[in-house]
Amino acid sequence: MSKKKIAVVGAGIAGLVAALELDKVGMQVSVFEKSSGSGGRAKTTNRDSFNLNLGPHALYSMGSLNKYLAANGIELSGNYPATKRSAAIYGDKVVDLPVDVKHLLRTKYLNVFEKLEYAKFFGEVAKIDTEKLMNTTITDWLNSQFKSKKVRQTVEAFVRLSTYGNNPDIFSVGAGIKQLQLALNGVRYLDGGWQKITEALSKKLSPNVKMHFDSAVTSLNSSAQGVSLTVNGNEKEFDAVILCVPPNVVNSLIPGTVSDAVPSYASCLDVCLKKLPNPNATFALGIDEPLYLSVHSAAANLGPAGSAMIHVAYYCGSNQTEPSHEARLEKILDQLQPGWRNELVFKRFLPHMAASFGTPLAKLSGAPGLESPNLQGVENVYVCGDFVGKGYQLVDCATQSALDACKFLDQNQY
After folding, report:
1. What per-residue confidence (pLDDT) applies to 83?
2. pLDDT number for residue 412
3. Is the full-model pTM beyond 0.85?
4. Nearest CA to 90 among 118, 109, 117?
5. CATH superfamily, region 5-42+196-259+366-411
């Protein structure tokens, strides 16, 4: 690869991965980010000595991002969540969540026949050939596999937890179960929050990579000779561009490029406490309602000694989030952590967080929008993000698509 001028638009994890890969082979890389710092949805806010991610984040141990970090010598501290009691929220009741044999035997919302049906699924889930199910929706598959409505709801809840998605009528069950299989290999919560990922990637960049913050790209023109970008009103010329931005931004620069991406949203309540009222209640999952609670500070250092950081969420799928979700999420805290208001340091409600910009669609055989970073008919422009590629989801999809975009550049002898 000869030294070419490459622009990376967006300084989230995908943008930083792309910049690092291009930097390794000596490209002249310029990164343009419209905000004042890198990170995107991986940003972490420090408030009252607490580190708050933008809603709940988990690093999949066998996922593309974790493997990429390890391959580049990046070691991040943090731990796997180990819950003393996993709770299921069914209706207004809090019961045992069947995460293992002990909890399955103890839980009260499933009868003996339902427990057997559920146990059979989890005994076989690792062996499911997900590629054969890519064209089937979660809803259709659940209805064909399970007699019990409660078992269908429980399996769907675990798929929803693994994918951050709540679009079962269009979501590829092959992609959903593949992500569940990945989650069963373990996830980690990171000390200091997800900013540690972007900080570590940024430190790996050489001084040759030029970072431009507060730099909005407003137009793009491509040709066989290269790409012209308008940045803060000024035109800049490059040999190629990698767009690491959401679908709506891609479409504003190249109209009609992304037409099939279906986002997933969540209402998130992030809560900082002086101490945890109930140390035994660190995880809960909604069964008949798309709810989530996890005490991330039980596995990661996110605040002062003895304090607690809790993430509570309502998975909304592609539907609009509701302000009323805040009261629903606080009710979960009342049930599992009674007295939490007496320990409150700070809380933040994020009513409309994008969990992902692309849902793996059954109609696209599990693709989340764009099947490839290489845009047909648009020369020298590549796109990456969690809505590009196939076989990966969430930040692993963003990471893999960034790597794939760099491979296309290599193939084109840049």
Report:
1. 66
2. 66
3. yes
4. 109
5. FAD/NAD(P)-binding domain (3.50.50.60)
